[in-house]
Structures are given as C-alpha cells and as structure tokens.
Amino acid sequence: MANRMANEGLSSFSDIAIDAIAAAVPSKNVANDAFESRFGEKFARRFGKSTGILERRVVEEQTTLDLCVDAAQKLFDEGHSFDGVGAVILVTQTPDYDLPASAIIAQDRLGLPRSVASFDVNLGCSGYTYGLWLAASLIAGGGVERVLLLAGDTSSKVVDPEHRSTAPIFGDAGTATLVSKREGAGRWRFLVGSDGSGNRAIIMPGSASRAASADIDELSGEVTEGRLFMDGASVFGFATTVVPEAIGKLLDFAQSEPGAVDKLYLHQANELILKTIGRKAGFAPEDVIVNLDRYGNTSSASIPLAFVTDGPAESHCAVMCGFGVGLSWSALHAQLDAIPTYLVDEAA
Fold first, then answer.
1. Catalytic residues, which ones?
2. Is 181 helix (H, G, I), strand (E, B) or coil?
3. Tell me, what's the pLDDT at 4?
C-alpha cells in the first residue's frame, strides 16, 4: 500500500522489507601514501586529516557489473532465494556500456527468468535510496513482489589520476539488496528531490553525446574531457544546507525526531560533511555511521556498504540519505528488522 503527498517529494509505503544486503569490494587497497609521488607528502598527510579517508579499494580489471553480480551471488550462496524476483534495478553512474543496460546482463549472469524486468538508473551518490524508493513503488503498485536492487560504482575508472580534487577521494564497490513484499512490515517513508540548476557541480564533460568544449570553458578547477569533475565547494554547500533540511522534513513527515532514530546512514562523502549534516540535523555523533576511512567515497554503493560493514545486527530505526550528482537527494525513514548482511572482501 502506498500513500503519496503530491509535489512534496514525500511518499510512504507499508508491507515492504529488506531481506538481505551484500557488498563486494575489490582486493586492491590504496592508502593515502600512494599519492605522495603525484601530489606530495604534505598533501597525502593533510588529505587524510581533512577528509577522513585513509584508504580505499580500487578495481583493476573488474567492472561495476562484476562487483554487483558478486554481491548478488553471495546472497544466493548464503541461502537467499531469488524466486519471485520480478525486477532487477542497477543504480550506477559507471555502467559497463552506454548500451545495453548492465542490469539486463546481470539478469542473464544470475540466471534469472526472461520475464524479469531489468533496467539501469543513472544516478550516483543519491542512488541507493532512490533505488529503494523505486523498488518500493514497483512492489506497492502490484507489478512485482520482489526486487533485486544492485547499486555500485567503479569511480576509479573515470577520475583523472592526476587531479588531486577527485583521484584520492573515490573507492569502488558493488552491492545487492533483496527487497520484498512482507505483510505486517513497518512503514517506509521517503523524501526525494532534485535541482538540475546544479548540474555542473559534478559532471563528466565530453563523456557522451554533448561536445565538451563549452562545458569545460565554464568549469573552474581541474577539468579533463571525459573524466569526472567535481566542484568541491559547491558540493559542500549543497550537502550541508539542503541535506539537513531534507532530513528534517522527512522526520516531520514520519512524526519522529533525531533522538528516536538509532542510526543515520549518510552517503560517505567526507568526514566533515558527515559531521556537519549530523550536527545540523540533530543527531548524536555516535549515531552517524562512518566507514569512509577504509573505503573512501564509493558513490551509489556507500550507504549499503556502510550498512554491511558498520550497521547494527539487530532491529533498529534508521534514516538513510544519499545526495550528490544532479544535484539530487533521497532519504528513507524506516524501522528495520534484523537484516542479514554479507561482505565479499576479495582481499581476504
């Protein structure tokens, strides 16, 4: 059952639950000292202090699709059936191909029936909670009873390795989440939003059909055609103003308050952003989940990866909020049952 508040970006769903979450990270670990030869020892030392990122996992030959399929396969290997899955959604800004959609290839690699609807969603850091919103909408609409939500990025493939503004920030990961119809499950409340006027804050000029020259001329800072550009100051301002307001609006909609929420799962952008959002939204520092020190900014995978690595094993009230490219944001308030989680650590 769904109830939507038109034009407010708010919606609520009941009888929907997360069955399990798995995350896969590649074996190659890159610590901050690996950037000393390019950016200097002082930069590498200060970078960790300013961002909270100490190391990250990066792929060599693998792709986003590979990591997401590995995560989904882990769910299956651990005894979670894919019976009844009617849709595969893959949220990523680094697909294997411009076409076909990576989700369709995942359907085949996972041996799912040809009746399964499969599609990609071109979102990054806000994408996981957007994906949960889409999954809930599909289930509430009666079209399917289960959704396999894949979310991941291999941003190390699209940054310019010579740009200090992006190269040290990102790590790679892929995740898989089983979402199902479940009678009696707690209510999920969402807020989604977008502001296309900020489209140049995070952009890859010249990466597809539009010529890059005009875009590059308008951008300031380190810009390479076909590579990820990020205006850090604009993103920081957006994240620390719009996101706390969005969380407050969601809590009002849920008739809740920060003290009633056990854990806040934010997109793992950088430590200062996480602390600032948590403080402005009224959360105690210990309730804000942080794992970027080990994995960096893993874009659409960051929230489910943080859930797997640092979330509590027991039932708890959670707020999840992703924010980034677009500009876009999405948040979920939910009372979650104990969720089985699994980490595929290829360095282990």
1. 125, 267, 297
2. strand
3. 47
Q: What number of other Cβ atoms are within 10 A of residue 215's Cβ?
A: 18
For the chain, give the longest Cα–Cα distance. 57
Task: Using alpha carbons, select from 151, 125, 156 the residue that is nearest to residue 243.
Answer: 125
Residue with tokens 């951008």, as numbered in its chain: 219
Cβ burial, residue 255 (10 Å; 0-12/13-18/19+): exposed
pLDDT in tens, 14-23: 999 999 999 9
Q: State the first-to-last Cα distance of the chain, in angstroms, to the nearest integer.
A: 42
Pairing state of beta strands 146-154 and 28-31? unpaired
Q: What percentage of the chain exceeds 70 in pLDDT?
A: 97
Structure tokens at 136: 């809930």
Per-residue tokens: 132: 């949960």
How far is Cα 78 from Cα 201, in angstroms, rounded to an integer? 40
H/E stretch holding 139: helix 127-140
Model confidence pLDDT, tens digit, residues 107-137: 999 999 999 999 999 999 999 999 999 999 9
pLDDT band (50, 70, 90) for residue 1 = very low
Bridge partners for 344 per DSSP: 24
SS (H, E, C) 101-126: CHHHHHHHHCCCCCCCEEEEECCCCC
Place of tokens 């919606």: 11
Average pLDDT for 310-321: 96
Query: Strand pairing partners for 9?
Result: none
21/157 Cα distance (integer angstroms):
25
Distance CA 73, CA 103 (A): 14
Cβ burial of 246 (10 Å; 0-12, 13-18, 19+) is buried
Q: Where are the alpha helices (DSSP H) in 34-126?
A: 36-39, 41-51, 64-77, 102-109
Residues 298 and 128: beta-carbon distance below 8 Å: no
Cβ-contact 53, 83 below 8 angstroms: no
Other beta carbons within 10 Å of 104: 17
> Which H helix or E strand runs over 239?
helix 232-253
